[in-house]
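Hi L., both proteins are below.
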Amino acid sequence: MAEANSTLAGSGDGRLPRLIAIGAVAGLFSAVFGVGGGILVVPLLIALLGYDTRTATATSLAAIIFVAVWGTAAHGALGNVEFAEALLVGVPAMAGVTAGVAIKRRLPVDVLTYGFAALLVAVAVLLVLE
């Protein structure tokens, strides 16, 4: 895990361009499809940068702060945001995150990784069947 947490400055291993590319793609997907963090950033951090599942999900959540603020401002300026409904989804989601972090602390990384992969496959199947 030390590799995934190494400093970016002067690392010379191509981490910085990969992180920037992941962020740019996540921003694009976030604006177009409303997704980016868990569906895109987490798998890319794992596959391209060697993060473990715990670190990838936590890093993705931290990155979402910036994406969410910027995206909300951009869509808000266009009148596309239902702020009351966003509040009704967002506040309970904070409780869900709290419970999820507590559960995640108790699960082995392999269980998290395979569970996440199963979720992605299930979502893909549901989208195809619609």
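That was the first. Here is the second:
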Amino acid sequence: METLAIIISMRIAHYERASRESQALRKNKMQAQSVQEKVHSQMLKAGSKVYFFDVKKASNGSNYLSIAESYTKKDGQKVNNRLTIFKDNFSDFGNTLLGLKEYFQ
């Protein structure tokens, strides 16, 4: 009976260790996926708002544009908004912005 108890406790310890290792691997994988390589970055201050233009490399190797807007509301709450433009849509997005330029002259 003691041998069975020892085997069971060894199995439990093995499963607990494997579970901890699996959780650590998942956490590391998620952290690695959330870190994209920045290719280029520019910042624009416009009054009380700050805009960040970041060209990043996606996991498939292609670049994309991330535009972030950051400001603080009157009540002190910080607001962050983000827009992502992928390589396939970048040309159309840019052309649309250029087409709107005439309305700001």
